[in-house]
Amino acid sequence: MIEIQRTNSENKDFIDLVRFLDADLAIRDGEDHAFYSQFNKLDQINYVVLAYEDGKPVGCGAIKEYEPLVMEVKRMFVLPECRGKGIASKVLQELENWAGELEFEKCTLETGVKQPEAIGLYQKNGYHFIPNYGQYEDVKESVCFEKVLG
């Protein structure tokens, strides 16, 4: 059974899962990893969702305000051995619910072309491609999405 919990970026389970995420991204992103990691600092994240399976932390995601009425989805990750169970979708849906409760109108996000599983997850959950935004505007390895909430 999957249990979903809201917390913040100081949560030890979140910090531990992010270490696994960063190790995975370092391999996928290669020499571009330093560029991307500068935008993933945890101290600016106040809204974190964790997924637990039988009491073990297996997945996470976060949102942070990007601009008025827009939350940015960050730090989505599920342990490799736990993938294919719908955990990421549950985390994402809880993040969207939370953003809506906080009166945000949409969620936006960036992922990489080297992360086809993430691209599939976001498309499956109703996100659509948008032009690359902000710091990702001229980055050909980035893919950006958004979803209107409600």
UniProtKB/TrEMBL annotation:
Q: Where is the N-acetyltransferase domain?
A: 2-150
A molecular-function term among this protein's GO annotations: acyltransferase activity, transferring groups other than amino-acyl groups
Give the matching InterPro entries: Acyl_CoA_acyltransferase (IPR016181), Bact_Acetyltransf (IPR050832), GNAT_dom (IPR000182)
Instruction: Check the record and name the Pfam families matching this protein.
Output: Acetyltransf_1
What UniProt keywords are attached to this protein's entry? Acyltransferase, Transferase
Gene3D superfamilies according to UniProt:
3.40.630.30
This chain's protein is named GNAT family N-acetyltransferase
- Source species: Labilibaculum euxinus
